Structures are given as C-alpha cells and as structure tokens.
C-alpha cells in the first residue's frame, strides 16, 4: 500500500482510493490507526463526523462526566500517562489524553473531520468498499467500523415530548451555553450518566425532579488525587505504573466470578452497596425507593459518593410514578401529578443493540447489516460478519464489559483485525470473509457462556439484552479468554479470494 498523506480530501465528485477506511476516532478508531502507524502503514484514513478526535469522551461533556474505571487501566497499554491527576479521571482529562495520544503517534494527519459516513456498499466486482460521507466519497480495500455502541443517543418515546417549549437535551448532546441556575429541571433516567449529572447540577438549580424507572446499585467511589510524588515515580519507573495497572486488572477481573460463574461471590459487593445506601439516605421511604429489587450486577454497578445526598437534598425529588406525558411547560406522571418544568435532561442511554451504523453498511447480497441482524446481532469474535467481505468491527456485538476497562477489549480486537489485514497482504488476497458456520459457532459459544449469568438470571431488564432477550452486548466470561480468542486471526474460519481469482463465497466453500 502507498502513502496517502499528501492526497487532498475528495470533493463532491471525486473518489479517494485508500487501503483502509476507519469509521470513528474514539479509543477504538485511534487504537486501530495507531497500530497501523506503528508498523509503518500509511495508506488509511479515519473518517470522523465531528471536528476533533475523542468519540464518546468528546461528545459526553455533561456536568460531572467521569470514568468509572481507574485511569491507569482505562488507557492504552502502549501509551501510559504518568500525569493522571486523579485515580478516576474526569471527561476533560480523558479527552485531553486522547488528543495528546493522537498527536504523539501522528495519526491526526490521517483524520478526515466532518466526514459522517452516510453509506458504505461492498462492490463485489471491484472488491472494494464504496464509502459515501459528508466530506466526499472514498473507495477502500478494507472498512473498519469503530463507531462504537455509545455513539448515538436514544431518546425515549414519551407522549408530548415534542410539544415541550422549554429546553430538552440529551446527556450526550449537552448544551454548555444553557444556564440551569434557578431552573426547574427534570432528569429522566438513573443510569451512569444521570448519577453524575444530578449531583453536579443539584446545588445550582431551583428544583430537581429525578424520574426513576429502576433504581441502580451504587457503591462508593474510591477516588483520590494522585500526588506529584507518585507521578514522578511513574515517570522514573514505568514498570511501577504497569504493575499498578496489572493489579487493577486482576482485582476487577475477579468480579467475573460473581457475575458469570457463581453469584454468591457478588454478595459482599451487594452488602457494600446496601451499607452505602443505608449510610447516606436516612429517610426510610426514600431509601426504599432507591433500593433495587434485582441481583447486583444485573445492570451495570455504578459508583458515586454524592448521588444519594443530591437526591436527598431539599430542592430534589425522586419520582417513581412513571411519566404519562409531557406538556408544553410540565411533566405529568401516571399518578396524576403535574410538575412545572423548564429544562428536561434525557439521561436515557444509547442505541446499543440496534446500532445506527448497521443501517448504512450494505454487504455482498444488497442487504444492510441491520437487516442481517434483525433476528439478533451475530459475528465471528465480535469482529466479522458473513456476507460482508473485508469489513471488520471494533467494539462490536458481545465485546462490551460491565466490570473492567473497555480499552483492554479494544486492544484485543485491534490485534485481531490487524492480523487479518496482514493476512490479506501476505496471501495476496482481494477479499477475506468469515463463514456462516464460524459465526453461528461463536453465537452458540456466547449463548452457552451467558446462561446462568447475572445478566440473564438476575431479575432485571437492561441495555445489555436485545429485544429478543439475548445478550448481544457483553462478553460473558473473563476478558483474558477473549484476548486468547482474538490473539490472532482464526484463518480456518475465513474464505480468501486471491487477487484476480473468481469470487469465492463462504457458501461455495462450504
């Protein structure tokens, strides 16, 4: 592949030829781009719809936004940061880290900003991906989707929401110019974003109504500043920071025993959460409303030291009756109570099991990825789909984790995809495609390991499960086992088409 560093961004009628087109510049997209740069590959572009790198950590800049995984683990293994100011980083620090890492490995020059992918179609004759974006057209040998599952906000279907005359904003599309001081604010949702937003805005608003459908399990946040002395030690002895990272990984990995193997190991975590609630909420009625009725871990375990005090504050109210409708100036709940409202904050999550990018990617037979996945998302190792040659997914189905750093899983997948790219070159292939048998075997592996886990048998509904009740989001086992599965390409589960040879589909090969 030849360098494209000096080639112009294509105009409306031009098509730029590239070796690899990567969609998205969050942790996954940058991780893929950096891996290519580190081995000397330059014939690639990163198609980013926004105007800076960062992905989730660029878009989610709501008040209180922070990570619930320690900084030393929630970062690239090849790019440790000795200067993290706290054990758990806040959004601006993570975004700055991603920007600095992109600059350090010189991948920003490969980024095409303002390039939202509107369509990507496989051309079987040319054996290329035709990619249409808001910044022009690209033709790529390989397409890597690193769009992620926390990219597109989900808005709830609430009657009358469109009639509200005040401000409505999703947590992932926060309006920094809107002043909440003294306003009557409604926060819809009590997930990971909500429990950070609520304490951040509660001291400033006039009144705060938190609309809760299901209470989360919350444990203390063991956050603390990182002293200059420790930062110096990290810089002088990088091995010490690697050791801290390894210990954090092992500690968090132990949670899998309770989540996926034997729920009795979750009991100490449950007792910790119960004690945290008892200690911070004195009102018995409010405490009952905040107590989950499902096994801890069924939904993501959240961490916070200030959410409970915030919803207990005199100007705050926990609303559990459920929203019946939104009116131009108020919200009405099913118990008939109408609450005057100035601003509605939707902390209602993302399109996770129905990825919007899947509607824009069309494979060999003219079907979109969304249509192929209508009965449930299925892949080989979360990375490849039969009928979509030379397409690879990062942060795809069953790659999510509820207990540790997503970056660990991303690095595992990047290694797998990079091995596939090397295989294409080494064998002189035009196309590489996984087989239906391989992805069905992988689906059964995931289903088998999901049985009996807290996510399926913990008594809750969550965004981990699709509309069929299947776990298509989480990896249901130890993450080191996922890394072993993705350490290198399982070449026996792929059909390759040599350059110039007739197309060989997996169905023909079977």
UniProtKB/TrEMBL annotation:
Taxonomic classification: Bacteria, Bacillati, Actinomycetota, Actinomycetes, Geodermatophilales
Annotated SUPFAM superfamilies: FAD/NAD(P)-binding domain
Top-level lineage group: Bacteria
Pfam families: Pyr_redox_3
Protein name: Cation diffusion facilitator CzcD-associated flavoprotein CzcO
InterPro entries (alphabetical): FAD-bind_Monooxygenase_sf, FAD/NAD-bd_sf
